[in-house]
Design a protein that fits this description.
flat, Gyrase A, domain 2, 546 residues, 13% strand, 20 helices, RNA-binding, four-stranded antiparallel β-sheet
Length: 546
RNA sequence: GGGCCCGUAGCUCAGCUGGAUAGAGCAACGGACUUCUAAUCCGUAGGUCGGAGGUUCGAAUCCUCCCGGGCCCGCCA
């Protein structure tokens, strides 16, 4: 409907002010007004036009309104607030919108224009199980990818596996030491080793297939343990993600970058550009030339490459794969890392804006008013799997999207388990179940949804519902453009709320009024469908019965 | 010390490419079930949008400074 109104406004503006006026339309807002007295849609074009044609917003608005009133799609067009133009849609237009909601994929669009986007998320080290923070990033990435696809982007989803470097060595060492311990030997555990109980489990598994491990020379044993642990833990990560209903198109191995010589290759390239120098035995990249605070080491004086080096190679690989844009989703504690990666991208000849980084803030778990603490170092962090089992995947996914990704999230486990309206997941799911129940009941009584008399749906509650359904289209656009998937949960809560409001005020099935009943059933089907689609994008179930 | 993020109702937060009288949920109080799911709805109360300046027709939103909170500043990842 925004498109339709915009079209009519463009027509009128070009008639009155010529093509200069039409340009401001791109910047103008077409929004649902906050107050329902202001009609169904409002625009601020007159304010913007005022600067171009040098007349007062009020005068311009008057002029536009005079012509816009002629269109049959609008019941009323008026000026308010000194220059806003408020549109009240005709009943005929509402009927048209509802038919689209029921019969078409009204929520998809092409604002992405087929742009290719690489979305990288989770990318947890295969050195331990996923914790709840990873889960939040996973859900944000997953839902964002779905929405971007629906809005016309070509999205590929990737998980970067940090299967090289020091943390993998430490993983191997930790498993090896635990295995020795299990074999009854005294061991000393270094400070930076992984201490979680899962390491003992991995060691136990490894001993089953390789009982001689504790007797092997340490170098060899650590290597074996690292390889074994890495694969086992990666498999567990993949299982957790599957359980969380999060998918990827590709799994990119850091180690493969070394094996294919990609790290050396990209450093050579940067060296040829004169951006790498040697100091104190180490190799440095001149990231300060591109806005970083200081230059960064890419190869340490002991000959080992840093994590940054392989990350440069990784992003170089992304660049070469030809994406229009790359989006990385990281934990907020990595924010200090952004300038150097962007610097590297610029050093490689790409605009730093090509890479967008979305930061995911901390998740804190609360139960009985008490915070459940986590700390990865000590190994007593809260595993994502535990949370999924505790509250269910629907609640986990929905709750992770209840706040903007860059604000810390307090996850209330008691609330997630509650089966009352205070729990937003139940609130939305209940709306869907309720509608299914109405449709079933109506069918039993011989009523069918019908688009024959939609003009009967003229109450404020009905008009509001129709327009809220169609809003999904614009919410998805906003989610994609701003990269803010949490908007979708807020939208669904609002839609459910307007449904419950309608339901309490109007009876749907009424034997004495067949035409109205069937029109309302058509509306009910439209709302049900919209809820189903919205929950489907969140990948949260839409139950028929609760 | 430098950088990033945040500060909106008692609590948890939406709203931020400037727009009309700043919203929701929870908590509090008062109502609505012989009728399609009360797992719901309606109403009341609750605010110097951290503070001060600036930009302009208009600022919670943009800019500057200050206050308060979190995170990051390694030849770790």
């Amino acid at each position: 409907m925004k498109e339709l109104v915009k079209e009519k406004v463009a027509e009128v503006i070009s008639e009155v002010y010529g093509d200069d006026g039409v340009e401001v339309l791109e910047r103008a807002s077409f929004e649902k007004p906050k107050k329902k007295e202001f009609g169904d849609l409002a625009t601020n074009v007159a304010f913007l036009l005022a600067k171009v044609v040098r007349q007062s917003p009020g005068t311009i608005a008057q002029e536009l309104v005079r012509k816009l009133s002629a269109f049959p799609e609008f019941e009323k067009v008026e000026v308010a607030g000194g220059g806003f133009i408020n549109f009240t849609f005709s009943q005929e237009l509402f009927s048209r919108i509802l038919r689209e909601v029921v019969e078409e994929k009204f929520y998809i669009c092409d604002v992405g224009r087929g742009k290719r986007v690489l979305l990288e998320y989770v990318s947890a080290n295969p050195t331990g199980p996923l914790h709840v923070g990873h889960g939040r990033g996973a859900v944000v990435g997953d839902v964002l990818s779905r929405v971007m696809k629906l809005t016309g982007y070509r999205v590929e989803r990737e998980f970067y596996i940090n299967d090289a470097g020091r943390q993998i060595y430490l993983l191997g060492l930790s498993i090896y030491l635990r295995a020795k311990e299990l074999a009854g030997k005294e061991v000393e555990f270094p400070e930076d080793a992984y201490r979680g109980d899962y390491i003992v489990e991995v060691a136990r598994e490894l001993l089953k297939v390789k009982p001689e491990l504790p007797e092997l020379p340490e170098d060899e044993a650590v290597k074996v343990a690292a390889e074994f642990g890495k694969e086992l833990l990666l498999k567990e990560i993949q299982e957790d993600l599957k359980k969380l209903r999060v998918e990827f198109d590709s799994w990119f191995s850091e180690k493969s970058l070394y094996e294919r010589g990609k790290v050396e290759e990209v450093l050579k390239l940067l060296k040829e550009k004169g951006l790498i120098y040697e100091k104190e035995g180490a190799l440095w990249l001149k990231t300060t030339l591109f806005g970083d605070d200081k230059d960064r080491v890419v190869r340490r004086s002991n000959g080992e490459y840093t994590y940054f080096a392989s990350d440069i190679a990784y992003h170089w690989d992304k660049i070469k794969r030809g994406y229009d844009r790359a989006i990385d989703i990281w934990g907020a504690d990595h924010h200090g890392y952004i300038p150097r990666v962007k610097a590297a991208i610029e050093a490689l000849g790409k605009s730093p804006d090509w890479l967008e980084v979305i930061l995911i803030q901390l998740v804190k778990l609360f139960k009985g008013g008490q915070e459940l603490k986590m700390s990865k170092r000590k190994g007593d962090f809260i595993p994502l799997r535990w949370l999924m089992e505790e509250v269910g995947v629907d609640a986990v996914r929905f709750f992770f999207l209840l706040k903007r990704h860059d604000t810390p999230l307090d996850f209330d486990i008691d609330l997630a388990l509650s089966q009352k309206s205070e729990n937003p997941v139940y609130y939305v799911q209940y709306a869907h179940a309720r509608l299914c129940s109405v449709l079933d009941k109506a069918r039993e009584e011989g009523f069918r949804p019908s688009p024959e008399n939609l003009n009967l749906l003229s109450s404020p509650e009905e008009r509001e519902l129709i327009s809220n359904c169609y809003l999904l289209r614009y919410e998805l656009q906003a989610v994609a453009r701003k990269r803010e998937p949490h908007r979708l949960t807020y939208y669904l809560i609002e839609l459910a709320s307007s449904l419950h409001r309608f339901y309490n005020k109007h009876r749907v099935v009424n034997r004495d009024e067949r035409e109205l009943t069937e029109a309302r059933l058509y509306l009910v089907e439209g709302v049900r469908r919209t809820l189903e689609v919205g929950l489907g994008i969140l990948n949260v179930s839409a139950p028929r019965r609760m």
